[in-house]
Please model this.
Amino acid sequence: MQAALSKAGAKPFIWKFTTPIPDTWEEIVAKHICHLPEEVKDYYVFATVRDPFKRQISRYLHGQRNRNPSQEEFEKFHFSTTNRRSCYHLLHLQKEYVPPKGFVNYKINKFLKLETLEKDFNSLPFIDKKIKFPHKNKNQISLDLNFTPEMVDHLTTTWQEDFEFFGYSKYYGIPLI
Model:
Protein backbone atom coordinates (compact mmCIF):
# COMPACT_ATOMS: atom_id res chain seq x y z
CA MET A 1 0.00 0.00 0.00
CA GLN A 2 2.79 2.42 0.91
CA ALA A 3 4.55 1.71 -2.40
CA ALA A 4 1.32 2.34 -4.33
CA LEU A 5 0.77 5.62 -2.52
CA SER A 6 4.33 6.69 -3.26
CA LYS A 7 3.92 5.80 -6.95
CA ALA A 8 0.80 7.96 -7.01
CA GLY A 9 2.75 10.86 -5.57
CA ALA A 10 0.72 10.85 -2.35
CA LYS A 11 2.31 11.53 1.02
CA PRO A 12 1.38 8.40 2.97
CA PHE A 13 0.77 8.24 6.66
CA ILE A 14 0.32 4.57 7.49
CA TRP A 15 -1.16 3.93 10.92
CA LYS A 16 -1.06 0.50 12.53
CA PHE A 17 -1.82 -0.95 15.92
CA THR A 18 1.51 -1.60 17.61
CA THR A 19 0.15 -2.95 20.88
CA PRO A 20 -2.58 -5.47 21.74
CA ILE A 21 -6.07 -4.67 20.51
CA PRO A 22 -7.81 -2.33 22.96
CA ASP A 23 -10.87 -3.58 24.83
CA THR A 24 -12.93 -0.41 25.16
CA TRP A 25 -13.97 2.52 22.99
CA GLU A 26 -12.02 4.82 25.26
CA GLU A 27 -8.82 2.84 24.62
CA ILE A 28 -9.52 2.69 20.87
CA VAL A 29 -10.16 6.43 20.68
CA ALA A 30 -7.10 7.17 22.80
CA LYS A 31 -5.00 5.12 20.34
CA HIS A 32 -6.38 7.06 17.36
CA ILE A 33 -5.69 10.40 19.02
CA CYS A 34 -2.28 9.29 20.22
CA HIS A 35 -1.11 8.03 16.82
CA LEU A 36 -2.65 10.56 14.46
CA PRO A 37 -0.87 13.91 14.62
CA GLU A 38 -2.78 17.14 14.08
CA GLU A 39 -1.16 17.72 10.65
CA VAL A 40 -3.09 14.75 9.18
CA LYS A 41 -6.54 16.05 10.11
CA ASP A 42 -7.10 17.33 6.54
CA TYR A 43 -5.75 14.20 4.82
CA TYR A 44 -7.94 12.01 2.65
CA VAL A 45 -8.25 8.99 4.96
CA PHE A 46 -9.08 5.48 3.80
CA ALA A 47 -9.06 2.11 5.49
CA THR A 48 -9.19 -1.47 4.24
CA VAL A 49 -11.84 -3.98 5.24
CA ARG A 50 -12.42 -7.63 4.41
CA ASP A 51 -15.44 -9.74 3.54
CA PRO A 52 -16.50 -11.47 6.79
CA PHE A 53 -16.72 -14.90 5.12
CA LYS A 54 -13.22 -14.67 3.68
CA ARG A 55 -11.99 -13.18 6.92
CA GLN A 56 -13.32 -16.16 8.89
CA ILE A 57 -11.63 -18.63 6.52
CA SER A 58 -8.38 -16.67 6.79
CA ARG A 59 -8.60 -16.64 10.61
CA TYR A 60 -8.97 -20.42 10.60
CA LEU A 61 -6.18 -21.09 8.11
CA HIS A 62 -3.82 -18.70 9.91
CA GLY A 63 -4.05 -20.88 13.00
CA GLN A 64 -3.58 -24.07 10.97
CA ARG A 65 -0.18 -23.33 9.47
CA ASN A 66 1.51 -26.36 11.03
CA ARG A 67 -1.56 -28.58 11.32
CA ASN A 68 -3.85 -30.54 9.06
CA PRO A 69 -6.86 -28.31 8.37
CA SER A 70 -10.15 -29.92 7.42
CA GLN A 71 -13.78 -29.00 6.86
CA GLU A 72 -14.72 -30.69 10.15
CA GLU A 73 -12.09 -28.72 12.11
CA PHE A 74 -13.14 -25.52 10.35
CA GLU A 75 -16.72 -26.06 11.53
CA LYS A 76 -15.56 -26.65 15.12
CA PHE A 77 -13.44 -23.51 14.99
CA HIS A 78 -16.28 -21.51 13.48
CA PHE A 79 -18.80 -22.41 16.17
CA SER A 80 -16.27 -21.98 18.99
CA THR A 81 -16.35 -18.22 18.39
CA THR A 82 -19.91 -17.70 19.64
CA ASN A 83 -19.07 -15.58 22.67
CA ARG A 84 -17.45 -12.34 21.48
CA ARG A 85 -16.44 -11.27 24.98
CA SER A 86 -14.39 -14.40 25.70
CA CYS A 87 -12.78 -14.32 22.24
CA TYR A 88 -12.50 -10.55 21.87
CA HIS A 89 -8.99 -10.50 20.48
CA LEU A 90 -9.88 -13.11 17.87
CA LEU A 91 -13.43 -12.10 17.07
CA HIS A 92 -13.65 -8.34 16.85
CA LEU A 93 -15.81 -6.47 14.40
CA GLN A 94 -14.02 -4.39 11.81
CA LYS A 95 -16.59 -1.67 12.52
CA GLU A 96 -15.17 -1.38 16.04
CA TYR A 97 -12.13 0.37 14.54
CA VAL A 98 -14.26 3.10 12.99
CA PRO A 99 -14.46 5.90 15.54
CA PRO A 100 -17.82 7.62 15.88
CA LYS A 101 -18.08 11.12 14.39
CA GLY A 102 -16.55 13.72 16.66
CA PHE A 103 -14.34 11.30 18.61
CA VAL A 104 -11.15 12.01 16.67
CA ASN A 105 -9.72 14.80 14.53
CA TYR A 106 -10.30 13.05 11.19
CA LYS A 107 -12.93 11.13 9.27
CA ILE A 108 -12.56 8.06 7.11
CA ASN A 109 -13.41 9.17 3.59
CA LYS A 110 -13.57 5.72 2.01
CA PHE A 111 -13.34 2.04 2.85
CA LEU A 112 -11.40 -0.10 0.37
CA LYS A 113 -12.51 -3.72 0.21
CA LEU A 114 -9.62 -6.16 0.22
CA GLU A 115 -11.40 -8.31 -2.38
CA THR A 116 -11.42 -5.38 -4.86
CA LEU A 117 -8.41 -3.49 -3.50
CA GLU A 118 -6.81 -2.57 -6.82
CA LYS A 119 -10.08 -1.24 -8.27
CA ASP A 120 -11.01 0.60 -5.06
CA PHE A 121 -7.53 2.10 -4.64
CA ASN A 122 -7.45 3.30 -8.25
CA SER A 123 -10.81 5.04 -7.70
CA LEU A 124 -9.36 7.30 -4.99
CA PRO A 125 -9.61 10.97 -6.01
CA PHE A 126 -5.86 11.62 -5.90
CA ILE A 127 -4.91 8.66 -8.13
CA ASP A 128 -4.26 9.88 -11.66
CA LYS A 129 -2.40 6.90 -13.12
CA LYS A 130 -3.80 3.42 -12.46
CA ILE A 131 -1.57 1.20 -10.35
CA LYS A 132 -1.42 -2.60 -10.60
CA PHE A 133 -1.22 -4.46 -7.30
CA PRO A 134 0.72 -7.74 -7.12
CA HIS A 135 -0.99 -10.45 -5.09
CA LYS A 136 1.15 -11.09 -2.01
CA ASN A 137 0.67 -12.96 1.25
CA LYS A 138 -1.37 -15.70 -0.37
CA ASN A 139 -2.16 -18.47 2.07
CA GLN A 140 0.07 -21.49 1.53
CA ILE A 141 -2.67 -23.95 2.48
CA SER A 142 -4.77 -25.15 -0.42
CA LEU A 143 -8.12 -26.30 0.91
CA ASP A 144 -11.69 -25.67 -0.18
CA LEU A 145 -13.68 -24.72 2.87
CA ASN A 146 -17.41 -24.31 2.73
CA PHE A 147 -20.09 -22.86 4.97
CA THR A 148 -23.14 -24.88 5.93
CA PRO A 149 -26.42 -22.96 6.20
CA GLU A 150 -26.00 -23.07 10.01
CA MET A 151 -22.51 -21.59 9.72
CA VAL A 152 -23.81 -18.82 7.44
CA ASP A 153 -26.53 -18.01 9.97
CA HIS A 154 -23.98 -17.96 12.80
CA LEU A 155 -21.55 -15.69 10.94
CA THR A 156 -24.16 -13.28 9.63
CA THR A 157 -25.63 -12.96 13.12
CA THR A 158 -22.28 -12.61 14.94
CA TRP A 159 -20.83 -10.10 12.46
CA GLN A 160 -24.11 -8.48 11.41
CA GLU A 161 -22.77 -4.97 12.00
CA ASP A 162 -19.84 -5.55 9.64
CA PHE A 163 -22.10 -6.91 6.89
CA GLU A 164 -24.40 -3.91 7.17
CA PHE A 165 -21.86 -1.13 7.80
CA PHE A 166 -19.50 -2.11 4.96
CA GLY A 167 -22.19 -3.30 2.55
CA TYR A 168 -21.13 -6.93 2.25
CA SER A 169 -23.59 -9.51 0.96
CA LYS A 170 -24.52 -12.16 3.48
CA TYR A 171 -24.15 -14.84 0.79
CA TYR A 172 -21.62 -13.39 -1.65
CA GLY A 173 -19.35 -15.93 -3.31
CA ILE A 174 -19.57 -18.63 -0.67
CA PRO A 175 -20.57 -22.13 -1.73
CA LEU A 176 -23.06 -23.69 0.64
CA ILE A 177 -22.95 -27.36 1.60
Observations:
- The beta strands are 46-49, 110-113.
- Confidence is low (pLDDT under 50) at residues 85-89.
- The CA atoms of residues 54 and 174 lie 9 Å apart.
